[in-house]
Amino acid sequence: MSDLPPPTLRLKIDRDALAGNWRALDRLSGRASAGAAVKADCYGLGVDACLPALRGAGAERFFVAHWSEVAAVARHVPPGQISVLHGPLTGADAAYAKACGAVPVINSLAQARRWLDAGGGACDLMIDTGINRLGLAPGEIGDPLIGRLEVNTLMSHLACADEDSEMNARQLATFRTLLPLVPRCSASLANSAGIALGSDYAFDLTRPGLALYGGVPRGELASAIRQVAWPEAAIIQIRNLEPGQSVGYNATFTADVPLRAGVVSIGYADGFLRSWGQGGYLLHGDTRLRLLGKVSMDMVVIDLTSAPQLHEGDWLSLPYALPDAARQSALSQYELLTVLGSRLKQADALLHRTYCGC
Ligand SMILES: *Cc1c(COP(=O)(O)O)cnc(C)c1O
After folding, report:
1. What does pTM read for this prediction?
2. What's phi and psi for 144, nearest 5 deg?
3. Mind listing the domains of the chain with CATH numbers?
4. What is d(CA 202, CA 197) in angstroms, rounded to the nearest whole number?
5. Of 39, 201, 320, 334, which is the active-site residue?
6. How far does the centroid of ligand 1 lie from the alpha carbon of residue 193, in Å?
């Protein structure tokens, strides 16, 4: 097959920023070391783009949610460094864990029994201290099944670490009372936001995700964290609007003066959702180019009045500094990363292959 022509949209992953964010979070974790949540394809940014940088920076513990996510991560790190947060939901999961060497996070007595029935071995143990998602209830810790587990990391997960909530101290206190009850190698409580709550929350291992990828869940992290994801799209057509002409589906924008408009190759199928439409803009350097009308599946239209030098083929950036982007789009910083579509990432894979000449 012949080579693909150049794309009209791309996601630049700043691998130096990613590695720097991991090092910053590791440093902020004090005596604890930082792991890395790499679930959901590294929060949408791509395992193949992100894992080498995280590993190169020093990360040695990686967290995914599904068993289906193990193989992609295991191309980059030893399977024994990969923990699967959903745990063994079936006997088939437990058998898969035994076969591939990834570590199950045990979340219930049923999962503990399933793991032991499959032959057991090293596992992590999640205890619920108040988020009421996955995890063993504190009252179940004394069960003899738990005593038979070979627990590597005993963990819990904070519900409100990105807020100044009394819930944080309450979960910390509960976790502390449970720690002596389970023999284990290490303990882990803090996600990205939890790291900013201070050294009390760090224990032996922290589990940042969002902040690795440029998210800032608490102001304390703002100066340490750099933007990692840089989505960009090209102008694919220029058109001149006359007063009275409208733009896009449902004609929600109508020009009242002559206007030079650019059609840009990114839409909601790429994760640029319609919630950006009202008051949204793209960037050329620091210049804001406002969106005209609705976001389409594959395109948006922008006002080029303040950038008359731009032409077809020129690249624009999405305003993807995550804290600002979240305010602007009404999406969470997590959602802004995980919605980024596959067309953007295919382009990054190509780009990086070109850059590194492999
Ligand atoms: C996703 C996840 C993390 C990472 O959380 P961030 O808020 O993205 O830092 C850590 N621990 C568990 C159990 C998770 O599910």
Report:
1. 0.95
2. -55, -30
3. 15-221 (3.20.20.10), 229-319 (2.40.37.10)
4. 9
5. 39
6. 9
